[in-house]
Design brief:
Blueprint (H helix, E strand, L loop, with lengths): L3 H19 L14 H11 L5 H9 L3 E4 L2 E3 L9 H16 L11 E8 L6 E7 L9 E5 L2 E5 L2 H26 L1
Antiparallel strand pairs: 1-2, 2-3, 3-4, 4-5, 5-6
């Protein structure tokens, strides 16, 4: 089980330290404060879904993060209503209708929800949530240009993404040392 406090805290510290060391503040942005139960319930209501326990736990620690590496993770207060979310969601729906692999079919009783995106190249993170209780299993898809990676849950995606971000940040420091 993912310890969201550790994952979010360690990545936030690493991103801040690297941004300071490289004098590039754009590499870092603090995660948002936790979502309230009201925020989470309102997002579920707007979207017509039931979040799973893993995603709820993430939102209780970090209600979105504009800089999870290069991914903007949407918070409960943005899901279903924010302009950035709406534009990203519209793009994702076009992608799923035209370019997605066949493995991205949404089973009956579930809805696909955009939970994260990047600016360029267009990459987005979507999840499957049941449209009515009881809460069921979900999947998390990381999609970009026809490369669709499926994860058994948001926690698995987040752990792998955090590891990749950490590796990339350490490589950036190493590359800068070689240049100087």
């Amino acid at each position: 089980m993912t310890n969201w406090n550790d994952l979010v805290g360690q990545l936030a510290i690493l991103q801040r330290e690297v941004a300071e060391r490289l004098d590039e503040p754009d590499l870092s942005a603090a995660p948002n404060p936790p979502a309230t139960e009201h925020d989470i319930a309102a997002a579920e209501q707007r979207l017509g879904v039931s979040f799973d326990a893993v995603y709820r736990d993430f939102l209780r620690v970090c209600d979105g993060w504009t800089r999870f590496g290069t991914v903007h993770l949407f918070g409960a207060r943005e899901l279903g209503i924010g302009e950035t979310w709406r534009r990203g969601s519209a793009f994702a729906e076009v992608y799923f209708a035209t370019a997605a692999s066949g493995s991205l079919i949404v089973p009956k009783g579930y809805r696909r929800v955009l939970v994260g995106k990047t600016a360029a190249p267009q990459r987005f993170i979507t999840m499957l949530f049941p449209t009515r209780p009881p809460r069921g299993a979900n999947a998390c898809w990381d999609c970009m240009s026809g490369t669709d990676l499926c994860y058994p849950g948001f926690d698995i995606w987040a752990e792998e993404e955090a590891a990749a971000i950490s590796y990339a940040l350490h490589e950036e420091i190493a590359d800068r040392r070689l240049v100087h």
